[in-house]
Amino acid sequence: MDYVSSFALYRPEEILAVGAIVLMLVSAWAGDKAAPLIGWLSVGVLAIAGISLIGAPISGQSDFAGMFHADAFGGFAKLLIYAAAAVAILIAPGFFVTDREAMRAEFGVLILLAVVGMSIMVSATDLLTLYIGLELNSLASYVLAAFLRRDGRSAEAGLKYFILGALASGILLYGISLLYGFSGTTSFAGIAVAMKGGVGIGLLFGLVFVLAGLAFKVSAVPFHMWTPDVYEGAPTPVTAFFASAPKIAAMVLTVRFAIQALGPATGQWQQIVIFCALASTVFGAVAAVGQTNIKRLLAYSSINNVGFILFGLVPGSKIGAASVLFYLAIYAAVTLGSLICVLQMRTKDGQPTEQISALAGLSRSRPGLSAAFAIFMFSTAGIPPFFGFMGKWEVFSALVIGGFWPLALIGIATSVIGAFYYLKIVKTLYFDAPGDVEMAPSRSTTEAVLITMAALFASPLGYLLIPVMDSATLSAASSLF
């Protein structure tokens, strides 16, 4: 492969890396007063990286001795990641409006560096690129979690995320060493060839440890313990970022690793994924019931949704992989919309509030915001005719087609349990008497536009996109096989 063709395969990563370095220098020279400009420039870099995906190989091409693979599956995930990252940067000024000193110029740069790692993750076809991409994402994320240096909750979130993330990275690295030791290679294709000869105890342990490390990154039970504290303590724009982009990257990486590297050991990894999926859906649904903080509730909701996404991986089929992408697209939009609504929860003096009780009677003073929040809750619960229903429909259909209909029944049952706390939010918005907390009107046009776009997507109007999304996700999933 000539150099021009080679560079074209990882053009988005080049754009993101160069953009991050240039903006880092700008932030060092210009200081924090240039934070708004650097934010908009960071969004521009993400947009250019997304546009550069046009014309990318559909069936896939590899480079770096097969360690990096550019295909439609990774390309679809990158578009979702770039969009989610851009939204996180755009809503940051609205959060830091009451504390200008907290809005640092490096916010957008850290997001870009994390996105570079995620781009490498979704295109990784080797254990080394898998680890490099994951760690590049994690290092920037640790700093983002503790971005509010004078806030004790933010510092605690960053420390917890760092300690538990380091533990997960150690587990992952140990699994990588086992897979390399017993297969003699770090490439996904080579590991698959080694497993065709039989999955010995060494390969089995390596498989378990790697999946455990990846389960931490997607916050699947029993590796979910960091999620509620980090979501609550981190700045809300960072929470929005954590709840969308890294989850998309880690989930897509997990699907690629399971299908391309562990294909011959499907019977073994299916048991692990089924357990994590069932535990996540049940625990996420039950643990959220008693929450009084909206960000903690959304953290448990995220764990619950991870379980449903993992259901799509269980069959190990093309339709299952497509259902994962379909669900991720809806999940990202609804989660970002919900957290932008949380960002709008400010008292008259401009101070943010995260208590669910503060939403009481909000429909009387902020009918538009309440309607959008209700749409997001109904959609996340999977209640028809809202678009979130189609995400669960795709996942359950993949399970039934693959012969896992008992899992589909369990998934439907846990959906009913989870619907309780989503409907509780709607009830608080529309039926509870207004409390002592009076919400301030919105002053951000950007947030209003983003909420409107996400609400329209999550509403029944989203059904108009089904033909396009079905075609795109199935085409992307086909490149895995």
Structure notes:
There is one protein chain. The two termini are 23 Å apart. It is globular and about 65 Å long. Helix content is 72%, strand content 1%. With 481 residues, the chain is an all-alpha fold. It has helices at residues 3-9, 11-30, 35-51, 72-95, 107-122, 127-145, 152-183, 188-196, 201-217, 227-233, 236-261, 266-287, 294-313, 318-343, 362-365, 367-381, 388-401, 405-430, 445-458, 466-478; strands at 61-63, 68-70. The chain has 20 helices and 2 strands. It is a multi-pass membrane protein.
* Number of DSSP-assigned strands: 2
Q: What structural category arises from helix and sheet content?
A: mainly alpha
Number of helices: 20
Largest sheet: 2 strands, antiparallel
Shape: globular
What is the first-to-last residue Cα distance? Answer: 23 Å
Percent helix: over 70%
Strand/helix succession: HHHEEHHHHHHHHHHHHHHHHH
Strand content: under 5%
The low-pLDDT segments are: none
How do you describe this structure in short?
Keywords: Cell membrane, Membrane, NAD, Oxidoreductase, Quinone, Translocase, Transmembrane, Transmembrane helix, Transport, Ubiquinone. The chain is mainly alpha-helical and 481 residues long. The protein has 20 helices and two strands.
